[in-house]
Structures are given as C-alpha cells and as structure tokens.
Fold this protein.
Amino acid sequence: MDDQQWDRPEAPADLMARLGNKTRAARKSRQLSRRALSELSGVSQRYLAQLEAGSGNMSIALLDKVATALGCDLAWLVSKQESPQWAENSLEMRYHRLPDKLRCQIDTILEQASTPQGRGQRIALIGLRGAGKSTLGRIIAAQTGVEFVEINDFIRQKAGMSLSELMELYGPEEYRKMEFQLLQDICAEKTEVILALSGGIVEDSKSVQLLNKACHTVWLKAAPEDYMARVRAQGDDRPMSGQPEAMQILRSLLERRQAAYGNADYQIETSGKNVGESSRELLALIQPLLNAAAS
C-alpha cells in the first residue's frame, strides 16, 4: 500500500452549500438578478433559488447552462477552488470568448455534415417574441394557400396546459424537448408549411441542425423597443411583466441570440414598417422559394 493520502469524500450538504454560495456570488458579480439569470440560462427561477439555497437537485446539463450564462467553467463551479482563473484557457472557455459570429460559424460546421437538402416548401420564421412571426405567418399563409403552423399552439395541445404552466412545472428543458420532437414530426409529415417558431429555438443545437437541413429560415428582426411594444400591445406579459429590468433582459437575449439569428438564410427588418409593408416584403422573398420547390 503506498503512502498517497486521499481526501475524504465531501458531505453532500457541504458540496451543495458551496455550490450555492459560488453560484450566488458569480451572479451578483455580474449584477444579474435571479430572473435575469433564468432568462439567460434557460433554467427556471425555482431551480436557481433551490441551487443558491444549497438544496437543489439539479442535473449536470442544467448546471452547465447556469455556468455558461455566468461566464464560468462548470468544473470551477463545483470545485473547492475559489478563483476561476485556472480555467481561463480551457478549450470551452476559449470557445465562449470567441465573437458570436465566429462561434456560430463553428457550430454550423460541427452540426452540418453536409449541405442541407430537402427543404421543400418549408418556411421557418425565427426571431424574438414580438418580431411578427405569428401575424405575418398567418397573412402569408392565407395569401399563398400554404398551411401555417404556430409551434407553441402544438406544444400547448400536446402538454394539455399553458406555456407558463409547462415552464413552471417542468422547466425550459422539457419545453425544448417537446419543441424539437414536434418540429421533427412536422418536417417529416409536411413538405409545404410556414412555421412560426419560438424565440429561443436557436439555442437548441438539435433544433438548429434540423432547421438548417429541412427549412428555409427567415429572421424577422426589429429594434428592442419595437419587440417590447408589440408584446405588450398583444397583452402577452411572458416573462417580463412589471419588471424594471425587462428591457435589460430583452437586450441581453437579443445580444445573446443575434449571431444565431443572423445565420438564417434570409432577414427582414420589420421596424419602421406597418404590417402590410412587412407582409409584402416577406411574400416577395418567399414566393420564389415556394415556386422553385414546387416546380
């Protein structure tokens, strides 16, 4: 038997308490509220509260999302080391420090084994909530005779509950799983469809890969103030109702997703235009795609 000394296993309660303290400290160092961290990481506030209290039972996948949103390494978050500097040059951290555009290019190379084929007449509208995906999608569908599908409607029907209830009970992870499965089913069953997708779909690598292969993607973009005004005009307060930091969260989301949205096949700016102008521009864009696929 050698003379190597082994540390005793750490008590689970001590590990969870340290993990909670480091998560809370990292969040405060970035001046993020728990709500803002929830938006950036895709992890529910309930899980974050439990995590910081030292009582959470969070999966490694969710914990990795929290670490990424905080800009720290997962291994540091669960380690006994106080300073995250040791991980500064890790491959993962170097990747996260790359410009968004370059990271998206790397993701595209890794996710696509070949040039996307078989897009048919599937048009996928992406962008933040308030971009006009539902409104413009329905108008274009009526004008072209192509079926329109709002992915959130399918998710509500499958879950048998509202999106807010689904998020509260099961969290964003379950929503993403349902979204990907429904997108798979729709692309397998329909060769002609106009899809309005959730704002966060670009953060799910499997869904992005499927979209690249199976759909023509169009980013409907707008100024942050327009997103906010449109959402509130629709009476949709998810998830920013009454929050003084609502605009900060929206700007952070847009900044985080902008490069991914920018990888769409086409872009249409909707700010400064009425619904009629935007719908005509969208129709002019996708009509040749529909005609080419049908010929």
